[in-house]
Amino acid sequence: MGYMKSNDGGETWTKFDGTPITLPATSTSIDVIAQEREDVGVGSRAGTVAVAPDGRPHVLYSSYDRIPMETWIASPDDTGRWQRSPLRATLPLEFEGWGVTMPGGMTFSEDGRLYITLTLIRPESLEDTNIWGHPSSEIVLIESDDAGRTFESRVLTSPNPTRPRWLPSLERQTGHNRVQAGPGLIYTDGGRGENNQQILSNDVCWLNL
Question: Exposed, middle or buried by CB within 10 Å (0-12, 13-18, 19+), for 142?
Fold first, then answer.
């Protein structure tokens, strides 16, 4: 898992501390946030980044090489070293045995509140069918008022072991769009199907947080 940034629309790239990166970038030239083992069955999911009002990037990623599954939020400290915090421990007590995984979403509102949405999941083992769209999937919201130092969480859907709620996405800052307190959240309510050619008719749900 790595990070790089550009201040000129992608013409040139640097690390977080401004160190230039020669293109094409490699795993040794970028900021390395985390590195997984090469064991069979080990894998990660990433792809969500949000920038705090102070300009500090936050990266969300998960690993599915263990049960319960874990997700981390990572950001650089004042020295440029990337620090990461696990998020499963923030779950409400009644979901203590569950895991959290991507896909998910993350955004900062204008007042600096951090919102994270993840997929709450409880497979019995990694061999418990495919975790993608697993029937136990539910939607959890994790929030922080201090840029990720402390968190609070709540589960937004009522657990239904036969119908997954998954693929959550949060409203984002886009320049013209300003995220106020309580961003919008959208997610899929329904199964994954038997294969990627099956035509499904699932519900898509919207929440104003």
Answer: buried
For 64-148, list the strands marked E by DSSP. 70-76, 82-86, 99-108, 114-121, 138-144
Share of the chain above pLDDT 90, in %: 60
Q: Set out the domains of the chain in order of their start, with CATH numbers.
A: 1-32 (no CATH), 37-208 (2.120.10.10)
Under the banding of pLDDT at 50, 70 and 90, the label for residue 167 is very high
Which H or E element spans position 50?
Answer: strand 44-51
pTM of the model: 0.90
